[in-house]
Prior knowledge:
Immunoglobulin-like; four-stranded antiparallel sheet
Amino acid sequence: MSEQIGEIQRRLTDGHRLLGRPVHYRVIDGATLEITYRDVPGIAEAEVLGVKRLLPHDCFCSVAPQTAECVTVRFVVSLK
């Protein structure tokens, strides 16, 4: 599993809109990886889709307000 997480992290170092934003990786229940980007000034659906193309096909994304100026973008990826 750590090899799979390493591959996901490597893919996410390629150029995309969220690059350079604070990011946190967390494994949930040993089978799911949560990737959270903070301090994002806004993100369009096309930009979310661009990041999702870098991830395995079993993933989900949510965008939630963080402050009046920033949002939190969270991707949940199945490691199965």
